[in-house]
Amino acid sequence: MRSRLADLLYENAVKTPDKTAIYCDGEEISYKQMANLVSRYSNLLLYLGAEYADHIAIPMNNSIESVALFFTAAELGVCVVPLNPSLPVEAVRTAMLSADVKHVIARKAFYVQCEKNGGIDIPGFAICLDKEYPGTVPFKTIDEMSNFRPEEIHDISGLESLILTMTSGSTGSPKPIDLSQDNKYDRAMAHIRVYNLTKDDRILAATPLYHSLAERLVILPLILGASSILLPRFTPALWLKCAEDLKPTFTIVVSAQLAQIRELLGDSEENRIGSFRSIVSSSALLEPLVKYDLIRILDCEFHEMYGTSEVSTVTDICFQKDKRKKNSVGKPFDEANIRILRNINETTDETDCVCGEVGEIAVKSKLQCKGYYKQEEIMKSSMAGDYFRTGDLGYLDEDGYLYFFGRKKELIITGAVNVYPSDIDTVVGKMPEIKECAAFSYPDERLGEVVALAIVPKEGAEINLHAVKTYCARNLADFQQPHKYFIVDALPRNAMGKLLRMTILDAVRKMNL
Amino acid sequence: MEEIRNFIVDYIEREYTIPGGTDLDRFNYVEEGYIDSIGLIQFIAVIEDEYGIEFSDEELSGEEIKTVGSLVKLICEKRDFYMGEGC
Q: ipTM of the assembly?
């Protein structure tokens, strides 16, 4: 049996060969050309020795070739490990080890950076996307490959891993979220149903392709026969220009982006986003004022969704249809069931809260990922029976609507990117003049939250903040960079000595730092 | 100066190639989304580290730092100031 995802793309190439499959960065490519590209890419990887179930890492940018790689991987039954291109080399090493990466596809800058920092071990082949680099195969070799779809080389069950999404960047044990081909297919079909998407839609993806949201937004149109619009880089101005020029009809946008787009729209009467019939906000809760303002000005359906990478979208609300529930994140998808688990003294037990009582949101969903790759114990400890404990707090009302209340996990979400504070503590804590440090979430108008760092110096040591910033720049990814630094005498801890990360913000504010 | 410009352009092009024919001197890499506001902190720290210079808060929040040409000029002036090396 062949891959269902790849089959659908090839079928669409037969049905509508000349229709635009993807627009990206001034280029567009038809379904026929896209199918040919996937064939050539598949033939290239086979020629280089890729085998069923191999893992291929790629510091991934938003490009047509990146989208083609997802379908190529589906076709061959291999697994893509998308990496954030700003990850420092040390973090790349950790990620590659934890995801059992065999091959690498990257731009020259990546190989240069690795070489400068002690090199990385690549057991299989390495492809250089943009230029030539010693020891790598230039991507332009793809031009010598056949446009014919390769013979079926291995039975594709749909259960094989298609994408491992890295959730933790630099230290400890990353938790790669393991998504099978069926996961991606089922998630796409659920969103097609809930948002009534058709082949006439033009679906805009404006977040990085190394996150599951954009992956879904590019795979979905191509299996549906619709058109995908992939924004290479996000700025509110580029997004608006794209909306005006390419007239998308549907998008799922992260709340931090939406706030910036709203700001840029200003009070102009001109409707620059009139092509949309539906816009969905995701990833973090919208600021209420931004939300009410958008409900007022948007001419199309406006939704907000709630979900996690592990279980995909859980709930959705359309504000125009559910006017009385504006503060809710909506009702569950048909695939999902929600329980609110009672949460006492930061410990979740497995009894259910009553309506209106805040507890930990737990979700049982047909869209749940395969698990954390090779981290079965961690996945197991995140479950309450069949229900995945999200680490988010919320409550259900009497009509079954979910209300998001905050996070139990000490995660920082900056511009929709998840940052694990302990990764930052571990890296920066290695500086000799620092006794200990703790990263925490600091509210920010533009990005929702930014990373802040509280530092306790060693006795007698003086902290040179410039040196700390440089150290962070060298050793942390861009999204992990602290925006604010606070030098403190001690970190807040409970009687058992456990770090009370969620109280650091209050503590530094009280000290007027 | 050419070496500094190459260093800056290589960094900016980590993810995307700047289209041919672009006027690099006036190229605003933040406005064009090549480096976002989160990445800018890291980029500036890398430059400070590479060239042994420091930017002031005003410079960090100003517009000059965001275009390749004026950033290169700023780095040259600072190198001159800090080490008498200039460009």
A: 0.80
